[in-house]
Write a structure and sequence with these properties.
Keywords: Cell membrane, Membrane, Phosphate transport, Transmembrane, Transmembrane helix, Transport
Strand order of the largest sheet: 1-2
Protein name: Phosphate transport system permease protein
Shape: globular
Largest sheet: 2 strands, antiparallel
Strand content: under 5%
Order of helices and strands: HHEEHHHHHHHHHH
Function: Part of the binding-protein-dependent transport system for phosphate; probably responsible for the translocation of the substrate across the membrane.
Pfam families: BPD_transp_1
Number of strands: 2
Radius of gyration: 26 Å
Membrane topology: Multi-pass membrane protein
Number of helices: 12
Length: 310
Amino acid sequence: MNKTSTEVVATKNMTFRRSKTRISDKIIPFILGICALLSVVTTIGIVYTLLQEAIVFFREVPVWSFLTGTKWSPILPPKEFGVLPLLGGTLLITGIAIVFAVPIGLACAIYLNEYAPARVREVIKPILEVLAGIPTIVYGYFALETVTPFLQKFFPSMGIFNALSAGIVVGIMVLPMISSLSEDAMRAVPKTLRNGAYALGATRFEVALKIVLPAALSGVVSSFVLAFSRAIGETMIVTVAAGATPQLTMNPLDSIQTMTAYIVQVSMGDVPRGTIEYGTIFAVGLTLFVITFLLNILAQWVARRFREEY
């Protein structure tokens, strides 16, 4: 009798677990699908909002004039709507940031992966990743109050607002992205490749540059492209430190204005809704969205093109 009761209880418990598993198998995929659908709907909503206002703007300003004009003065007369000064300022800041961040970030990744002892890696890597959590407004005032006065000792003609200090600090901001993603890509390289190179007499430096780095090239290059995309979209650092002078220049000591900084400037509430000046916010935002979208596609293509599977 006791054995029969035990078997009945065990059967009931097994049946309950199976029914619970079947319910969870139906509910969890549904919840995950809703989350995925939510991200898609959000992206579609953003694109729709940008297009809705940008189309109204481009009815009054030709797209070609917008993309090729070299003067940007949408608020003060004579009004000009050439986005090249904003695009040039954005690319100048991004170029300085990438030139600063790529060699340092890659060197950090190689050191952490190939040279640093485990205890040192456990300390340095979290410190680097803390940089990614600092608010960008803090970075902006760091560039304005610390980096710019330091650089003025070497460049006396440099103004308070300039592209050089803003670009360097943007590079500091994206540095953790490059070092962390590159280090993760290098760590995924099998140790057998390293051991084989060491067995052939290669030095640690040769293994790092000629074996590990080429094997992890897809992840490393993807980190560069993602950092480039992140630097293009940076707002507060360039708003605080780079200035608000839309001019087409390659001199990093000059004050410039980026696309994101212009959006912040015009979004303060002084421009009436529905005006052509208001429409410039969405035209510039759409341009920025297209650039970052293309960069993300490039990052995915690079990852597929140079991926090594072991």
